[in-house]
Design a protein that fits this description.
Blueprint lengths: L1 H18 L12 H11 L6 H39 L9 H10 L1 E6 L24 E6 L2 E9 L6 H4 L8 H10 L13 E10 H12 L11
Antiparallel strand pairs: 1-4, 2-3, 3-4
Helix pairs in contact: 3-4, 3-7
InterPro entries: Tll0287-like_dom
Organism: Hymenobacter nitidus
Protein name: DUF3365 domain-containing protein
Length: about 230
């Protein structure tokens, strides 16, 4: 009987303590949300095949988009500074330092290919189906560890006509002589605004795509606004 009394008394005491504990008396862990987000980001994520393909497009768009923006910026500067002679060495965005840095991060090998290239090393047979508007993307996985991204290169900037337009109309004779001297096998003329000139083709290693997926899906804590 005495043991039962002690048991009931202990239970009543616990219930009394719980009832008297208000929410504002609970001590919360400082930066609890940030700690939870950090732990979630550190957790190993399972990447499905569809995620790999979608991320290949993200990575390809990011790499080639940055390269194209830098190309247009540098060409505008060089054309203003010294015309076609000054701009000609800069028409290789796949070789820019900024492109190379991002390519190393993504474990990527970017190339620009064309059926009518300026540099014979970029010669490629490209079916018409691969030269659709810029919204078209081809994403492939030829092996378990390699992903390939491809999209058309469109002549979308009028300044490019000074090197790739019609000879005698868009391209001055002196400038074309300079181009032919540097690229004797040049075929990259006669284009008009909006034409497809070739394709970006980028190969990615699986580990690079996995890292980019992790980076893209990582949660970022928004900074708290000050109370006052």
């Amino acid at each position: 009987m005495r043991a039962a009394f002690h048991f009931l008394a202990s239970g009543f005491l616990c219930l009394s303590l719980l009832a008297g504990c208000r929410p504002d008396q609970i001590e919360h862990i400082e930066n609890g949300k940030q700690i939870a987000t950090t732990l979630e980001n550190m957790a190993v994520k399972r990447i499905l095949p569809a995620d790999f393909l979608r991320t290949t497009r993200w990575a390809g768009d990011s790499l080639t988009g940055q390269a194209d923006r830098e190309l247009h910026r540098l060409l505008a500067l060089q054309l203003r500074a010294g015309g076609v002679a000054a701009a000609l060495p800069y028409c290789r965005p796949e070789a820019y330092a900024t492109t190379d840095t991002l390519a190393r991060t993504l474990l990527a090998t970017p190339r620009r290919l064309s059926a009518r290239p300026r540099n014979a090393q970029n010669q490629a047979v490209l079916p018409d189906a691969e030269l659709q508007p810029d919204t078209a993307r081809l994403i492939k996985r030829p092996t378990a560890d390699v992903f390939v991204y491809q999209r058309p290169i469109l002549l979308s900037d009028a300044q490019c006509l000074r090197c790739h337009g019609e000879v005698g109309k868009d391209i001055a004779a002196a400038d074309y002589a300079l181009i032919k001297k540097q690229y004797p096998q040049d075929q990259a003329t006669g284009y008009r605004l909006g034409d497809a000139m070739g394709v970006w083709r980028v190969s990615f290693a699986r580990n690079g795509i996995a890292e980019f997926y992790t980076m893209k899906t990582r949660k970022v804590m928004k900074p708290r606004k000050p109370l006052f």
